[in-house]
User: What shape does this take?
Amino acid sequence: MVIIFMESCFERGIVLEEITIREQIEMMEEKTLSKFATHNRDSRGRDREEEECDIRPMFQRDRDRILHCKAFRRLKNKTQVFLTPLGDHYRTRLSHTLEVSQNARTIARALRLNEDLTEAIALGHDLGHTPFGHSGEKVLNELVAGGFVHSEQSVRIVELLEKDGMGLNLTWEVRDGIKNHRTSSMPSTPEGKVVRLCDKIAYVNSDMDDAIRAEILSEDDIPLEIRKTLGMSVKKRLNTLIHDVIISSANTADIHMSEEIDEALSELRKFMFKTVYTNPVAKGEEVKAKRMIRELFKYYMQNPDDMPEKFIRMTDSGTPIDRVIADYIAGMTDQYAVTKFNEYFMPKAWEVDGY
Assistant: This one.
């Protein structure tokens, strides 16, 4: 038991009751957070009950669990937009995740929302992404019965695949935010809604920054009306978008942008799809990446025993083989997928002892 002094009696050194650090943090939330914020004490809880930590509230523990899980570490070697870029400064899925988290915490703090819940959702939102970004996702979506969506896979990871089938046992609010972070969905908490907007803000701006670095486009290529509304540089546009979310959402139950800024961001997103996301220079290797994922899937359908033991056990317990293969491939980093492809499909040099 961690004992601290109640504030009213601190100067006299009198302990009125034993109270943990976690409990004091939860009490402070009642005084400091917005009436629209999600409080730890109001959480719908976990699927499996656990003893509470004496220091960390529930959402902070969730944040820590995601940060320390294997799927999070693998994000550093997964594509954001540019497949296996040679430069050191192009974004990966991990750096994108960290940018989403930073932007979301800035907004959450300004609106007095729950920062721990916001950060946990942000750090976990892309855990289910495949190697080679959305290219890999599209292939698995075609091959797996019932389809494949990275947001749903992220939830599958934290509920089942991590810790050898035990999952991370996260709170309902974190899982809801992860599952519904895509534009087509809507989270149940304001913190989840913050992450949903920050994901779009982050990838549009950072992908544009990478495209300018790659000389696929220049600042002057961006339509002038968009730049007049959002700003004349990546930094200024990011600043405009974050400020607008805070100003528009202050003292309301919803998280949103002003109509003018939201429309400008939508136009900027359309511009990115036209000039970068479908650009043959930026996406020239996608055909190879898709073929690689497709061939790996076919190989494991024919040779399921070549998967690691924990995935073989999943098929033995009744999980459909195509779903298990998708779990395995989706968890691969770009380089690991290339390594396995070479192992199965590329000829090896013949080694002979002696002369």
